[in-house]
Amino acid sequence: MISKQNINFFEKIIGKKNIYSDPGDCWSYGYDNSKFHELPEAVLFPKDKNQLKNIVEYCYKKKINIAPRGRGTGNTGGSVPLNKCIVISFERMDKIIKIDIKNHIAIVQPGVINKNLQDILNKKKFFWAPDPSSWAYSTVGGNIANNSAGPRAIKYGTPRENILGLEFISGKGEIHRTGVTTTKGVVGLDITRLLIGSEGILGIITEATLKIIPKINKIITIEICYKNFKDAIDMIIRVMSHEKIFPYSIEFIDSEASELINDLEKDYYPKKSNALLFQFEILDLKDTVSIEKIIKKLDRNSLRMKIAENINEQDKIWKARKSLSPALRKLGEYKVNEDVVVPVANLSTFLKRLKSMSKKYNVKIVNFGHAGNGNIHVNLIYPNEKEKNSTKAKMCLDEIFNLVLSLDGTLSGEHGIGIIKKDYIGKEIPKETLKLMKKIKDQFDPKNILNPGKSI
Known about the structure:
Elements: H1 4-14, E1 19-20, H2 23-26, E2 43-44, H3 49-62, E3 66-69, E4 86-89, E5 96-100, E6 105-108, H4 114-123, E7 126-127, H5 140-146, H6 153-156, H7 159-162, E8 163-169, E9 175-179, H8 191-195, E10 204-211, E11 213-214, E12 218-226, H9 229-241, E13 249-253, H10 255-264, E14 274-282, H11 285-298, E15 302-307, H12 311-322, H13 324-327, E16 334-341, H14 347-360, E17 364-370, E18 375-382, H15 385-388, H16 391-406, H17 425-428, H18 431-444
Helix pairs in contact: 9-14, 14-16
């Protein structure tokens, strides 16, 4: 474990109450939603950037590894403290520093919970666009580290499109500021976008300047069920190609996923149907009539179309979609959850091939996700841990990744690389480009103390 001398130094910086060094206290800070676990050497809870700067400077001198942590909601092991790391937890750096409605910006510390920020912005009739499914308990810093988005990314983009500037501390303990507070700015290199999605390997974020957006008056929610996924995907393409409408979100649920929901809520969906959930923002009732007419005209071969008449019906439709992750546990505790992306036009081919793989490897595969972006959560369900870690399971995953890349896709849409996908990154990124990325990492973090063993 970490030396008493080091603990004494950290106590001088942040106080004894802001440090855990007993293994029993540290244990719960050693894992995330990936189920990987490593015991931290210690857990530190800084309250501001100056405390954090002093901590990182000391760690650089002593070569103490650091794992930054939001609330541990990640799925790929990005915050797991490998290589004898101390954990820097941001749960006490949770201040909303400024909300500037006139200039459409909010400035926050990294430990702010996404939902807490949204609740405050909502009172001012504004919102921040990124809405990952973990938004009720994930942090803004964690969302930034993984570039985590959600259903409305189809219209508003990911954190990369909704962050104007960052303040961060490099691996040497230096404070840097990047970006602007305006919606335009081209002075210097775009280090802001480089930091977003870097999973804490380049710098530790201390402050973020977010672009906030005025709320639209009303949202239309339409749920449509199809007998086969090709009809469902074709409908997505027709909607996305229409010149008069643009969706706020499009969610896809395959037949296996719809059966799971039917187990929770009897006969919610028609038997063995593939479901789509469309949402559109509108300004007035005329838009409602127009969008409903267009959707009905574009529809072909649907089993059922449901247009939510009020907020309660909207909530019921979304409740079904959000019940999927916990419902998967009914199929087995041992799950591999991959979030891959393919071009929307290639989704039918992708889903068809996944069905073939399910039979080939004798594994249950359940698919759902943000179909408007082609971002599908592929869930492989195994009866026990031995099967999950078997050679056959690895062969299946390898074939899925090869399929994604052959369809011009990418191996991760919003969950990051972390530990789980690190061995596969070379499939997507050429060797020379990876070398360049590692050289960039060396400039930000010369001693490789920031989240070692992750991402690239």
